[in-house]
Amino acid sequence: MLKFLGLSLNTENGIIHDELQDEGFKGSEVSVYFILCGYAKAKLVPETTRLVSFKQLIGGQAYYKAFAERAIQPLATTFGFKPQMLIDASTLLGGIHQTHGEYSVKIYALPHVPLTIILWAETAEFPASADILFDSNANNYLTTEELAGLAGLTSVRLKQAARVLEAKQQRVRSSKKGSLKKKRWEEFMAWVALTLVFSYVGRLSRLLLPQR
To answer: How far apart are the first and last CA of the chain?
Structure first.
């Protein structure tokens, strides 16, 4: 069993399960298999912790425009106005908080293949922007084209993780709202009951008191 990005691949039958949403994977399995085929040929090398941009990968300059549109821009669009959600969503994918830029996380998109995602939040003066950096040994594991696909998949999974978190938060808010309504209803009914009791006691007292 290979686990990555909140997905699990059964290496015996090739079935991919989405653990985030507890269902079968609805993305492009062919794209995932394409990435994993390259990864399976890799030799284990130590992580250097030296970060490089996509343009610094082998042939990265030629792929950069498509890479930015597929992997980087969706991150800026999704998280630019709610940057803390990037940090929160990344935890569902095993993300580790970093100190680059305004907001950043490190995610092992595959074992030994970390991606560092950096986000600058949207402001009144500037639109949101993002970047994805790689360990300098990344091309030892995947080709630049495969790394572009992996970064794109990571971007998609972060968006899906954010939706999972938002749905959970909505359920919590709804539950609290329901509990508050229930509490207020119970308080109201208690007040009604108490009012009726006092009214009954008052009537009973008038009946029992001797008439003058």
So the answer is: 92
